[in-house]
Design brief:
The complex is a heterodimer. By secondary structure, chain A is of the alpha+beta class. Chain A is built from 19 helices and 28 strands. In chain A, α11 runs parallel beside α18 and α14 runs parallel beside α15. Chain A is globular, with a radius of gyration of 26 Å. The N terminus of chain A is likely disordered. Chain B is globular, with a radius of gyration of 15 Å. The chains are: A alpha+beta, B alpha+beta.
């Protein structure tokens, strides 16, 4: 691709700049940790637990150790020689680097075999034997509330979050967080309501399935450690590894090239602590690359149960909503407690409801850990509240769009937390969805065994607060520009967006900007690339950094008595007498935030709101139960798109991914907590043949006033509403209500024939 | 255990020492430093490891390297400059993370060799063995059509 060198003549923001890394990706040259091999490197293969809950009685590694070509077999004992307290996690320090004393789910790492040849390591894994004393296990999130099977002996909150402190040391519980919100007077409102509706919904456990499976490589000296990792959160990895080792942060370097997909799977610590310690033990580079199968035993999306109850007036105003949500966090908390709270507070939906009660529980169970997956819990919530909302409209004989419009939160009105809605184009999004769906035109209903229906849903999300991003922008002696950010490009196009933002400030072509990939020795701190936060947070930091660089250049011009339009190269030449020097601007962005009180109330819960609505037309085959989406419309408020084409592909990709979670993806466990479908042969993700005939994506005209050039996050937006829109359409088509995901042919058929 | 095999790799005569169990992807990576074909699902279901052997796409993660003896092996790294398919993928924004992209590009070349002017249905069925978790499918369909046009013009 041609790289422009002349000054920008057009706006850099709002232009569909092709991804900066396009050439690398279409020629197979993009750098992924997957490809990395270092001289003398050992490969680690993991031996995993075969029981869901048990005390480790014995691990016999002798046969594995004796296999020719095996370098070393490592268990928790050797790990603890290096890290005496080997527990990590972003919210709780509950997850051991290798199982210590106990195993808590089938598939938990128990030992590692190291060998120069990965095939030898794998063979040796099969020679390890472990014996467990099995303990009672719990798998269901609601059961976990009262179960006698206790996953962790005592709770160990990380201490970084004030709202988790009260849980420290708590025993005999599986509740990792009990978030509570109260607004108005729910019992009174329920008592005097014209109508009360109550429903219960469930979502299933699914997996991110990035096509580049999780992978990390560590290399070390006696006093330094470098971790090359497919991670969305390099800054967190450095802090957490430094904490585990008791080292200063500057001795731990974390490098992240491109990711082959992330979707929330590659956050916090996954393999990083393990490879780090293995490298320190062996003094050799160590790589662990998971297989697709192993990813299912590493990180997943929360299964959930949501009981929702609403009081509604005769004329269709929702006056009260009672929400109880149970999140199945699996054996380790990961970021589940944050999902439970930060998404939990939006559980009543984007509606103006005076009386609200929310109880949102993070539960430990004996299943693979759950974390964030493209939506941070929001798709689970929208699934329930938009199915519920539709059922109410149906019961009251109101048009589902009209019913929603009547209740939508208007600009400036307080959401359940008390935080006023700002820059959330809810009404506009709903209106555009109505228009694009030709809602006023009756749908052709089908004939015979093919029944047609349509449905819509609208959801919203509060971006996680409070989080920080820093960035630096270097203007080189020839006027070219380099951006330093720890924002990770996992396919969402952040490199390109950051280049466009810097270019807009500096008035140069975005194509000429270079973005340095995360390297904690080089790029400044960034909380993580998650939850659609980066365009807003990292983008604002890059904008501030570029502005700072520009100010310094302007000062230099003044100092040198050069005119304002002097070319940058000439400024440096005048200053240094030759081509030399550079100017570095820095940006530090942390938006204001107010922590919630004991009732979940706060004047400022979030820096920005995301709005996503979907509409579908479907066909149900009543003989097979198969649902075919014939038309999918996604409308979103993404602020002002920085790169319209990339925004569109984000909306489209997110919605298609959500189709998989809606119609077929499901991790299947047996009664002993054994996962039965840990491979792409048995766990199907969307392919070409699952595409709806027609897909429309639209970003409404909107501006995020505190966002960089009016922009805000988009990566998750189109996941919100797809599932309930389809359930609502199925109800419309065949008159039955599905309350559990996925809505595969079997469940649809059973429901239809039970009715 | 290892034995030498000779084959042509992206038009060049090469040889490699391979073990009987080694896959083509491993040999391309370990002996030739080529990582455009990459193992993902390990079952030949996702298409990330696509390699052309004597002009036919194979799953390089399942294809034993030793079977490539005397064959013409082509990978995404072959050729200089971008072909019509690669240009079209860029113009149509037909990838996000890029991990599956080499496989899609190679399959699209084969698709267009067989069907110079494919319709949506042909494209969907022909490429249904390649998965993209970022779900750039609509853009890939657009890219395939654009590449077909570009090829006809050339």
């Amino acid at each position: 691709m041609k790289r422009a060198t002349h000054p920008a003549e057009t706006a850099q923001v709002g232009r569909s700049v092709p991804r900066l890394e396009s050439w690398l990706k279409v020629t197979g040259r993009a750098e992924y940790v997957h490809n990395l091999r270092l001289p003398g490197m050992l490969y680690g293969k993991i031996f995993r637990s075969t029981v869901a809950h048990g005390r480790i009685k014995r691990i016999d590694v002798a046969a594995a150790q004796a296999l020719a070509g095996v370098y070393k077999v490592i268990t928790s004992r050797e790990i603890r020689d290096v890290v005496p307290d080997p527990y990590y996690g972003p919210a709780f320090h509950d997850q051991p680097i290798l199982a210590t004393d106990k195993v808590r789910y089938v598939g938990e790492p128990v030992a590692v075999v190291l060998a120069s040849d990965p095939h030898v390591a794998e063979e040796a894994v099969h020679l390890i034997e472990a014996e467990y004393e099995e303990l009672p296990a719990v798998y269901d999130e609601v059961e976990a509330m009262t179960s006698k099977a206790i996953v962790h002996d005592a709770l160990k909150p990380a201490g970084t979050f004030p709202d988790l402190k009260h849980l420290k040391g708590r025993k005999n519980t599986n509740i990792a967080l009990d978030f509570r919100l109260r607004r108005g007077d729910l019992p009174a409102a329920l008592k005097r309501a014209d109508h009360v509706f109550e429903h219960r919904f469930r979502t299933q456990q699914v997996m991110h399935t990035p096509l580049e499976p999780l992978v990390s490589v560590a290399e070390s000296t006696e006093s330094s450690l470098t971790i090359h990792t497919a991670s969305q959160s390099p800054s967190f990895v450095r802090i957490e590894i430094a904490r585990l080792l008791g080292w200063p942060e500057n001795r731990v370097r974390v490098r992240v090239p491109f990711l082959g997909g992330g979707f929330g799977a590659k956050l916090y610590i996954k393999l990083e602590a393990l490879v780090a310690v293995l490298s320190l033990i062996t003094r050799r580079p160590v790589k662990i690359a998971l297989s697709m199968e192993e990813q299912f035993f590493t990180i997943t999306k929360h299964a959930s149960t949501f009981r929702i109850k609403s009081a509604v007036t005769r004329d269709g105003r929702i006056v009260a909503r009672d929400c109880e949500v149970w999140w199945n966090g699996g054996a380790y908390a990961d970021i589940g407690p944050r999902v439970t709270q930060k998404s939990g507070f939006t559980a009543p939906g984007p509606y103006d409801i005076e009386n609200v009660s929310i109880d949102s529980y993070a539960l430990y169970t004996n299943l693979p850990p759950a974390g964030a997956l493209r939506g941070f819990g929001i798709p689970q919530l929208v699934w329930a509240y938009e199915s519920h909302t539709d059922l109410i409209a149906r019961e009251l004989g109101l048009d589902p769009i009209e019913f929603r419009r009547r209740n939508l939160l208007r600009e400036g009105r307080p959401q359940a937390t008390g935080t006023p809605m700002k820059d959330a184009a809810l009404e506009k999004v709903l209106a555009r969805l109505e228009a694009l769906m030709d809602w006023k035109t009756p749908l052709e209903r089908g004939a015979g065994s093919i029944r047609r229906g349509r449905g819509i849903a609208i959801g919203f999300k509060a971006c996680i607060a409070n989080t920080t991003s820093l960035a630096a922008v270097n203007v080189n002696a020839d006027g070219s520009c380099t951006v330093y950010t720890s924002c990770v490009d996992m396919g969402q196009g952040s490199d390109t967006a950051m280049a466009q933002i810097a270019a807009e400030v500096l008035q140069i072509p975005a194509e000429s900007v270079t973005v340095v990939h995360s390297d904690t020795d080089v790029t400044p701190f960034d909380m993580a690339t998650l939850g659609s936060r980066s365009l807003f947070h990292s983008g604002n930091a890059v904008k501030l950094a570029a502005q700072d660089a520009l100010n310094k250049l302007n000062q230099l011009k003044e100092e040198l008595k050069l005119s304002a339009d002097t070319a940058i190269a000439d400024v440096f030449r005048k200053k240094y007498g030759m081509r030399a020097g550079s100017v570095t601007g820095t940006g530090n962005f942390i938006p204001p935030y107010t922590p919630p009180d004991e009732n979940g109330q706060t004047a400022n819960a979030t820096p920005f709101w995301m709005v996503g609505a979907s509409g579908v037309e479907i066909e149900v085959d009543t003989e097979t139960g198969r649902v075919r989406v014939t038309r999918l419309v996604n409308v979103a408020d993404v602020g002002t798109p920085i790169n319209p084409k990339i925004v569109e592909t984000q909306l489209s990709g997110a919605a298609i991914m959500q189709l998989g979670f809606t119609l077929f993806e499901k991790m299947l466990f047996d009664a002993d907590g054994q996962l039965r479908n840990a491979s792409l042969a048995e766990y199907k993700i969307p392919g070409f043949l699952d595409l709806p005939k027609s897909i429309t994506n639209e970003a409404v005209t909107s501006e995020q006033t505190n966002g960089p050039f009016g922009g805000k996050g988009v990566g998750e937006t189109a996941t919100f509403s797809v599932s309930p829109a389809i359930a609502n359409a199925i109800h419309d088509a065949i008159g039955v209500r599905l309350t559990e995901l996925p809505m595969n042919p079997e469940t649809v058929w059973k429901k239809l024939h039970a009715a | 255990m290892r034995r030498e095999i000779r084959f042509r790799l992206n038009g060049e005569a090469v040889s490699a020492q391979v073990a009987p169990h080694e896959s083509l992807v491993e040999v391309l990576r370990d002996s030739f430093g080529l990582s455009g074909a990459r193992e993902s699902c390990g079952q030949g279901l996702c298409g990330c490891c696509t390699v052309l052997v004597d002009g036919t796409a194979v799953s390089g993660c399942l294809y034993l390297a030793t079977l490539a003896e005397n064959a013409e092996v082509s990978t995404i790294e072959g050729g200089v400059g971008l072909d019509a398919v690669q240009e079209a993928f860029i113009e149509a924004s037909a990838f996000q993370c890029g991990f599956c992209t080499p496989g899609f590009v190679l399959m699209t070349r084969q698709l267009l060799d067989e069907h110079p002017d494919p319709d949506d249905n042909t494209i969907k069925h022909y490429l249904s063995g390649n998965l993209c978790r970022c779900a750039a499918y609509p853009e890939i369909i657009e890219a395939v059509k654009l590449a077909a046009q570009k090829r006809r013009k050339r």
